[in-house]
Design a protein that fits this description.
The chain is mostly helical and 111 residues long. The protein contains four helices and no strands. Helix 1 crosses helix 4.
Length: 111
Amino acid sequence: IQAAPRMVAPMAPVAGTPVASAGPHVPFARVRIIVAERCLPCHSSNPTDDTFKIAPNGVTFDEPKDLQAHAATIHTRVVEAKTMPLANKTAITDEERQLIGAWVEQAASLE
């Protein structure tokens, strides 16, 4: 009897690893604007959200390197599972999710 093949979930690329199929270049400046509007109200060292007075799980995106460090998790939560922003509190659009996803898939470049 032959065992059924195992299904392995695809992993988001690690920052610094280029991916050829990620489409047109997404500049970091564009991602930064989305993050400032949709993520920083909670994920900042000084959150402005009315519920979160400190960044959830201590995760902040104040600096570009913070976004790079959390790129794989951002892809999972924002693009794949769509569980961030929490209850879509900041009304991120599908287009913004796609741009963030492409940016991560393009190695989360700061260019």
